[in-house]
Known about the structure:
This protein has helices spanning 2-18, 26-30, 42-50, 57-60, 84-89, 95-108, 134-151, 161-168, 174-177, 195-200, 205-218, and strands at 68-69, 75-79, 117-120, 155-159, 182-184, 187-192. By secondary structure, the chain is an alpha/beta fold. A 6-stranded mixed β-sheet has the order 1-3-2-4-6-5, sandwiched between helices. The longest helix has 18 residues, at 134-151. It is globular, with a radius of gyration of 17 Å. Bound molecules: iron/sulfur cluster (SF4).
Amino acid sequence: MKNLKNALxxxxxxxxxxxxxxxxxxxxxxxxxxxxxLPDNLNFLEKQARDCHxxxxxxxxxxxxxxxxxFNANVMFVGDTPSSxxxxxxxxxxxxxxxxxxxxxxxxxxxxxxxxxxxxxLKCRSLDQQSISPTHAHTCHPYLLKEISLVQPKVIxxxxxxxxxxxxxxxxxxxxxxxxxxxxxxxxxxxxxxxxYLLRNPSAKKIVLEDLLKIKGLL
Length: 219
Ligand code: SF4
């Protein structure tokens, strides 16, 4: 996921340029990255995230929403940020979009929800559900990378444009990349629409059905 690191750094440098900075030291800037020593165990990783105060979302969150599911899953779903319902109860993919995702897993992939692993780019709710701050994503990224390296899924399904961008650093127009099979760092990543998008745009369900059937074929 080196591409993501470079993309985030580039984005942050552009932001500094817009603020009027002419010169900055990339080396010095990189030193601000979180130097997290993370455990090689998902239960301990969750515990560490639940006590995390590395970014400002720790002040606004109600509960940390960590990944859940099968620690040896072949399929990992990565969303963007916890919903308000997730935030209030501390569980991932609850509420209507969680129900939609469960139906997608059970009815199309013909798996149980507990057979797959579900996580988000951010473990604490972003107050702006329509976007994720690069700083927050950058700070929280080591948790996601560690989850991926511990679960080692065969297929990672990126739910929505933000999940896809923060997994890959690729900012191609989402509709042009959706449903394609991407390879990165030895992982297979397939982007499709987030269930919350399907709730707002039910006509896109047919497209997601095609994406999921493709994923089922890969498994
Ligand atoms: S969003 Fe991630 S980095 Fe920020 S406080 Fe929560 S767990 Fe820590």
